[in-house]
Amino acid sequence: MPKKYVDIETLKYILYDIHKLENLLSRERFQEHDMESLDLFIDSVKEFSDRELYPYFKEMDETPAYHKDGTVIVHKQVQKVMHQSGEMGIIAALFDYEDGGLQIPSSVFHAALYIMDAANNHLPGYPSLTLGAAELIIEFGADALKETYVPNMLSGVWGGTMCLTEPQAGSSLSDITTKATPTEDGFYKITGQKIFISGGDHQFAENIVHLVLARIEGAPQGTKGISLFVVPKNRLKPDGSLTYNDVMTVADFQKMGQKGYCTTHLGFGDQDDCRGWLVGEEHKGLNQMFLMMNGARIAVGRGAAAIAMAAYRTSLQYANERPQGRKLSADGKKNPTEKQSLIIEHPDVRRMLLLQKSIVEGALSLVMLAAKYHDIVTTATSKEEKEKYHLLLEMIIPIVKTYPSEAGAESVDNGLQVLGGYGFCTDFSLQQYYRDIRIMALYEGTTGIQSQDLLGRKVTLQNGMGLELLSAEILKTIIAASNHEDLKSYATTLGNKLQLSQKILGKLMPFAKEGNYERYLADANLFMEYMSIVVLGWLWLEMAVDASDNLINTDRKYSAIFYESKIHTMKFYFKYEVPKTNALAESLMNNEVLTIKNDKEYIL
User: Fold this and answer.
1) What is the pLDDT, as a whole number, of residue 600?
2) Does a structural domain hold residue 109?
3) 62 — phi, psi (to 5°)?
4) What's the rounded Cα separation, in Å, for the pair 477 and 544?
5) 5 in Cβ contact with 314 (< 8 Å)
6) Which of 166, 394, 444, 542 is catalytic?
């Protein structure tokens, strides 16, 4: 199979030229890195993905993870990818040197993991979740916890998970009931169940270190009473050997997609011998877990964007190779004696491919923007800089998680359509991408949760300061585009959509001010879609400005057609996607209330 699952040229263009990776390297944390070494890191991950991830993509779908004899049996590549991710420094990439890390920018890390996600989205979750669990221990754990668990996690010998969801609670973390009972020996007895635990168990891990949210006996109700614990599958004995810690793998969920990435149901303390160690302070568990949450939400958006990229590259290759039909002549008829046309010559196929390209590359730029903001926040040298970019990051986190997941699924759907009947057949990978991407709108907070977060929390954050800062960043690009004669009309259009968003909020905000939050948030999903289109329009206009500047530069890095393709795709996005905001605005400002439950039931 050709290894054309990712467009490396565009990835590097967006990372290096659009989001200016080099500007980050002057910051103290990243001073020991240079562009050449980071480029080599990305290239090494691409070579690793070509060799150890991509060739097993279809095979892992056909041989799903499954539960047997108290553990989960996964594909052999899980072991290889975990260990080599440790050896290559992928798991440790973001951590401080003193913790065994590489201190590389988050932007570079997400670019590298994007390649892995595009190659085989069933595998990168294993090292990624291990990284996230280690991050919490490093940030909040006592030295003894760090020394006990982190080295083996960063090496890929031990795995790690996040354990939040419970059968009776779902996404409502205030309703979790997993219990932690203190003992005189410094540990807590843990009892309860967790479901949908990605990477929760497999036969190749010596140990799985679970980061578990639980409620200490007597703790306050709601999220304020939740604490965080390290609960390993196997605990260490004084002699350094491992012994079972009463963490039972009850089952593995069988799924429509991502079948090689195991999803487990775990039981803690069935034999009253499950020990957990408190991470940080009591009752601060949810706040601590949210340290990971922003990174996890960027990772979900990254994964969705990468799957959509792989699907696009596959359907593009097919369109360039598949002859079918003939072009219409001037009289509107086809000449059956003429040679068949490649389907990429048909306007409707080109429309579907351009839709994919506009979503895929725009989503990638969105992910890289979030990673850049995260890098600036973690290396800020002033309170003002830290606060500004923290607010900007908070504003786009719900969008970076949601847009690639929702629009990415639409993109893959169009890719499948390009293949026609073959797209529905298991001989081709589009149907697998279609199944794999569907989970992304559910991971780490569903689209509905992210939409309520955007409208309910982020828009109102600090009296609207986050939205004001984001609008100011968009306006900078609008002004720059206005200096290009051929981009002026697009700049005007985007400016109008930004103004319309204020009109929408002017309609909705009075509901929040009068305490009618159910009405205020009833159409939060529509507002999410509206703002996503505006933000993606901004990012595409930003690319078009850069491309226009480079087309008049004789010392350009890429070919003229490369830059022209970015401008052409921006125009496509503004013609076909941006007008959707008009319908969304009309619905958002409509006075009819049809989805709030009243004393009559109309859903029969």
Assistant:
1) 84
2) no
3) -80, -15
4) 10
5) yes
6) 444
Q: Which two tokens stand for residue 64?
A: 């799903």
pLDDT value of residue 598: 87
**Dihedral sign of CA atoms 442, 447, 452, 457 in order:** positive
Q: Which 3 state secondary structure label does DSSP give 397?
A: helix
CA atoms within 13 A on the CB side of 217: 8
Q: What Rg value do the Cα atoms of the chain yield, rounded?
A: 25
Domain carrying residue 520: 446-594
Task: Tell me the C-alpha distance between 481 and 555, whole Å.
Answer: 21
Q: Is residue 588 part of a domain?
A: yes
pLDDT number for residue 171: 65
Confidence at residue 574, expressed as pLDDT on a 0 to 100 scale: 98
Query: Whole-model pTM?
Result: 0.95
Model pLDDT, residue 2? 46
Q: Tokens standing for 299? A: 């990772």
Look at the block and give the residue holding tokens 């991470």.
279
Residue 365 to residue 535: CA distance in whole angstroms: 10
* List of the chain residues with pLDDT < 50: 1-2
- The Cα 108–Cα 42 span in angstroms is 7
| Token pair of 233 as six digits | 């599958």
- Residue 328 to residues 235, 340, 347, 352, 353, Cα–Cα distance (Å): 71, 11, 11, 19, 20
How many angstroms separate the first and last alpha carbons of the chain? 49
Question: Rounded distance, CA 489 to CA 466, Å?
Answer: 27
Angular region, 464: left φ>0, alpha ψ -120 to 50, beta rest:
left
And the tokens for 133?
């669990």
Q: Report d(CA 275, CA 191) in Å as an integer.
A: 9
Both tokens of 483, joined, read 């200096």
pLDDT the model gives residue 1: 43
Task: Give the span between the Cα atoms of 168 and 356, in whole angstroms.
Answer: 38
- Candidates 373, 362, 361; CA nearest to 469 is 373
* Structural contact between residues 306 and 406, judged by C-beta atoms closer than 8 angstroms: no
Q: Which residue has the tokens 């480079």?
A: 550
Strand (E) or helix (H) holding 227 = strand 226-232
- Token pair in block for residue 76: 């052999």
Q: Who contacts 532 (Cβ-Cβ below 8 Å, separation ≥6)? A: 399, 402, 403, 406, 407
**pLDDT for residue 419:** 97
Number of domains in the chain: 1
**Of the candidates 547, 537, 546, 542, which has an alpha carbon nearest to the alpha carbon of residue 572?**
537
* pLDDT tens digit sequence for 15-36: 999 999 999 999 999 999 999 9
The pLDDT of residue 177: 87
444 is catalytic: yes
Q: Domain for residue 541, yes or no?
A: yes
Asked if the structure places residue 50 within a domain, the reply is no
Taken as a whole, the chain contains a residue count of: 604
Q: Tell how far CA 389 is from the center of its chain.
A: 19
pLDDT at position 594 is 93
